[in-house]
Amino acid sequence: MEEKCQEIKRFKDINIKEMFKKIREMARKGPLPASRGIRSSNGHILWEPEDIAKRWEEYIASLFHDDREEADDKTTSYESGHSILKEVRWALQHCKPGKAAGLGEVVVEMLISLQEDGVDVLWSLFENICETGQIPSEMLKSIFIAILKKSNTLDCENHRTISLMARTLKLFLKIILRRIIRIILPQIPTHQYGFMPEKRHKECYFCVTYAM
């Protein structure tokens, strides 16, 4: 940035037209690329790529910070054997194709193409996770991408962050979510609409309108 300012000053006495051209390039309209700078937590503008990366790491860590006390370890039962095998097959069948790969560079199409061999590998992996309670560290790493919500912004808060996680972790979480839903659904009253399978608000509106 300092070099560009000095260059503009040199053009002031040499070529006014070129000077204004350089100014327009620096102040062009539209979204600012991430490399142009980001605001630090204390309000300073960061320009160096290393400083920008550290600021994003700090901001994303704050989003996932949890002050809650750790729960006491409790022995819980889990479904194993053929139950997990069936769930792995279900998860693979209900995965949408064409999704981006995470750090492992493994897409769901690769796992599906392995057929039963791929199912057996995932089954063994998920069975081990359930038994030990530990998820491999490689599966917990994600790629975070910042997408502008407002143009010409330097604030991290004005970006939408999305994460690309490993497809194996995505499949495992899909199975866990399905189990949670099976437990929660019986606890929800029948008149609950919205965020429910096959019970969206428009069905409710239709029933009320039809009854009137």
Structure described in brief:
With 212 residues, the chain is mainly alpha-helical. It has helices at residues 2-12, 16-26, 49-63, 82-93, 108-113, 116-132, 167-184, 201-211, and strands spanning 38-39, 45-46, 142-148, 159-165.
Task: Name a few traits of the molecule.
two-stranded antiparallel ribbon, mainly alpha, 8% strand, 4 strands
Structure description:
A two-stranded antiparallel ribbon has the order 1-2. It has a two-stranded antiparallel sheet with strand order 3-4. The protein is mainly alpha-helical and 212 residues long. The chain is elongated and about 80 Å long. Among the domains are: 1-30, no CATH class; 77-189, no CATH class. Helix 4 packs across helix 6 (116-132) and helix 4 (82-93) packs across helix 7 (167-184). It is built from eight helices and four strands, in the order ααββααααββαα. The protein has helices at 2-12, 16-26, 49-63, 82-93, 108-113, 116-132, 167-184, 201-211, and strands at residues 38-39, 45-46, 142-148, 159-165. Residues 31-35 have low confidence and may be disordered.
Q: Termini distance? A: 67 Å
Radius of gyration: 26 Å
Strand order of the largest sheet: 1-2
Structural category is mainly alpha
As residue ranges, the low-confidence spans are 31-35
The shape is: elongated
Percent of sequence in beta strands:
5-15%
The number of helical elements comes to 8
Order of helices and strands: HHEEHHHHEEHH
Map the helices and strands:
Elements: H1 2-12, H2 16-26, E1 38-39, E2 45-46, H3 49-63, H4 82-93, H5 108-113, H6 116-132, E3 142-148, E4 159-165, H7 167-184, H8 201-211
Antiparallel strand pairs: 1-2, 3-4
Helix pairs in contact: 1-2, 4-6, 4-7
